[in-house]
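G., the chain you wanted modeled:
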Amino acid sequence: MDLREIYVNLANYNQWANERIYNACEQLESVSYHQNRQAFFDSIHGTLNHLLLTDRIWMGRITGIAYQFNSLKDELYPTFSLLKSARQTEDERIIAYIKDLPLEAILSDLSYSNSTGQQYCQPLWQCLTHLFNHQTHHRGQIHQMLGEANISTPVLDMVVMLRDRH
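Predicted structure as tokens:
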């Protein structure tokens, strides 16, 4: 297995885990879905919006096509159904990008600026690892919020996905 294959697995896991989280969220009433639960991005809805936004920001940096936004709390989509559809599209885009990414690109440096204009240069593999780790971090928060809302929480362990697919 090469390094590129690891990122393909991470992209596939990301999509799989997002599908499971969104399927669990479908059980929520709108009030519960939008309820402020004292999380970084307030509600389940706010956290799901943040994850989509930051994936678009990072993919913009990676592809060189900047994604415009005002705040990391921007609401991209006001409804669950619109957000879910956009999430599916973004996950497919990430997987397609990773599958076509040559190993040399993963090892190359990426220059970008953050939201305040600070310039950075890091190996692309570090940025990709952050993209997937960031998703895992906030999905964990959503998982907790689902439990607080008395929704049966899905198993999100990557090893479960790998076992199921092999």
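Residues 3-154 form a domain with the Four Helix Bundle (Hemerythrin (Met), subunit A) fold (CATH 1.20.120.450).

Shout if anything looks off.
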